[in-house]
Design a protein that fits this description.
Number of helices: 12
Distance between the termini: 75 Å
Mean pLDDT: 82
Helix content: 25-40%
Radius of gyration: 25 Å
Low-confidence stretches: none
Shape: globular
Order of helices and strands: EHEEHHEHEHEEEEHHHHHEEHHEEE
Amino acid sequence: MDLSQVIVRPVQHTEESRFQKLMGAHHYLGALPKIGNAIWYIATWNDEWVALISFSAAALKCGARDCWLGWEYRHQYDRLHLVANNSRFLILPHYHYKNLATKILSLCRRRIQKDWVDRFGFPLLVLETFVDPSRFAGTIYKAANWNLVGKTKGYQRIRNGYSDTRQTPKLVFVQLLQRNARVLLSRPSLANQYAAGGTRMKLTAEQMRSLPDFFRQINDPRRAQGRVHHVHVVLAIAAGAILCGMRGYKAISDWTQALSPQARARFGCRCRNRKFIVPSESTIRNVLIRVKPVELDQALQHWNQRYGATDESLAIDGKTMCNAIDESGRQIHIMSAVGHQSNQCYTQKKSALCL
């Protein structure tokens, strides 16, 4: 086989069924549905399919990868979109030629950043993959200059978090798509070109457990009859959802319903029939519109005072107050200092300029 004639291109919509059928028939893990940000590629030689490869969303947690990249936990959730996982790689039968796999990986590396920007609007900085050492040694990734950064702990990702039992730890391979990728990912703030939507935050287990305590002094405006969830639990969950980037009652409710059993327990949710139940959208809305705004604001400020001290950098932002003119006829401006990580406003200063 002349490797110079091998071409790698994204799978077209009309080819997805064939791609999945071949992956399900020949890959030991079977086919993988296209969920979230994902691109499927095929490698062709003389217009014949010789290999299938897919890149999808990165693993939520991987200690070896996270340690090697050097980003902090609070940065991780907001930057995972800059990492893609090589979730499947299949050389089709009758095409197991020497150096073909490394050639395909090299071709994917050359084009995936542009493909990712064209499809999702932001670039990639890092590729990752997991190799089962009981089956493979990761030879093709080593030959393609991927970095072996360690092993997983053996816990498998499931619908409601991670499995309780450990399986065979996987080898973790990582490849940088830019030389300065590790520097960019470990910075306190990202450049606009790497952002995807609004700033997001991921709560730690300790933060989840602490949030309800800040709302315990708030009076419950609801009737006692039919009350299922404590007001401090509802407010803590709503605050957690907003801190993680949710906006609107529907988004807060979806985030709440997606909480794992461990997260529900940390927030102090009630346990019924051995399952932790969370408040519905109507319950969240009812509490938020009826609770006293002053009490809620004080509770949130106390929480910010405790965790805002972890901010590594501040953003200075100025706003012009529309139709706000002082007695001397000067336009009013507000200058604010806001923490990058906590989004806490540390101070504001009013100034006025002559019109």
